[in-house]
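Example record

One chain of 280 residues, shown exactly as stored in the release files.
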Amino acid sequence: MEGQSTDVHPNTRACQGSDGKEGAEDAETDDENVEAWELEDDDDDESDYDDSGYYDDVEGNTAGTQQNLFAGALGDSTASASGQFLELLFQLCVMLSTESYVDWQPSSTLLIYFSGILGFSADCQRFQLARQYCSKLSAIIYIQRMLFLEQALPLREYQSIGIPQRPDAGQFECFNEFRAKYMVLGSQYPLAELISLRDFGRNIARTEPPSMLFHRSNDGETVSHATFQITMNNFRKLADYFITQAEALCDQLMFGLHPHVDLSKIKDDMSTIQDHLMHI
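Predicted structure tokens for this chain:
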């Protein structure tokens, strides 16, 4: 055994090397074929699922659910933001209504300053008459009273600004405490000044000329206002005109019927309390 030669011919080694390489290449080819078959099987499975509509249903339901959830969340967030904005707006209005004077000057508050601007005409060329300005002051006063009522006795809780709901008992005491501070005459807050301005304006309005001025002709037979004119003869016919219109309306309501009723024979028995015999 030891005497045997172990040398291998170079060509034999080359053939063995070539056969080894070919075997490795064949193995790689087989692996690639197996992977290709697996990919084809996966594609076939997916196509089968696609044909069955399984993926479409799952994706459609998922997309619809996500869309509904998103829409619901968006609606809730919008409602929450809107409610928070309204509460902050309420807080701003109350803050303007409860702003105190600086150096005892009512015009130092923003609300009194704004009410003075409302006294100008639309073209800002003149001041309005007192009777025109008082109505605007009355509107501001009314709104302030509603704000104070809600501030003193809140109908619900304002979470954004930290105002609790009104208590079940002692509501009069809560409101009276708020009223004594902000709503009485002589207080250093805008409501008292606005009420004083309105009362003063009403007194001035009594001395102002009327909003409509009629002019009478020299002979006293014609009354005019701007381009409208009426004579005394036509003015005397005014009562007859109203009577004619009332008769026409009554005839329309009665559908043209004219019942013969003697009103002088209709009497009311004051001692009778039955419904069908009472005429009052």
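Notes: The longest helix spans residues 54-97.
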